[in-house]
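Annex B.
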Amino acid sequence: MKKNTHGDDEINMHEEMRRAFALLSGKWKLEIMWLLNQRMYRFGELRKAIPGITQHMLTAQLRELEADGLVSRTVFAEVPPRVEYQITQKARGLGPTMEALTAWWNEYGKTVPVKPASRGRKARVVKSKPK
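HTH hxlR-type domain-containing protein: predicted structure tokens.
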């Protein structure tokens, strides 16, 4: 990738893009961000919405996203404690990227082979009780 120069400061766009990719790299971060782009979630809701993710991994990924300024965490002083996660204004800037990925998937997703389920926590099927 070419280097862009602005006066005395030289910007290596390859390095800058590597930094950008690192913010969302990992098995779960994009999925977490996609969900939070839709609405605010509580921790348990996120865990249920992402089949295969463990509690430990979700906690770690959310902490990294929060440290990078992409996710905000709000703790409510209630018993039991309530914690809500939402994307930040900075992360909202990724909205067009999410929309472009959705449009791409709608066009080409059916051509992508389905992969077998991966390791991790299996999705639970919750059966509702008859009323």
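The first helix runs from residue 13 to 24. The helical segments are 13-24, 29-38, 43-49, 55-67, 89-92, 95-108. Further annotation is deferred to the next reporting cycle.
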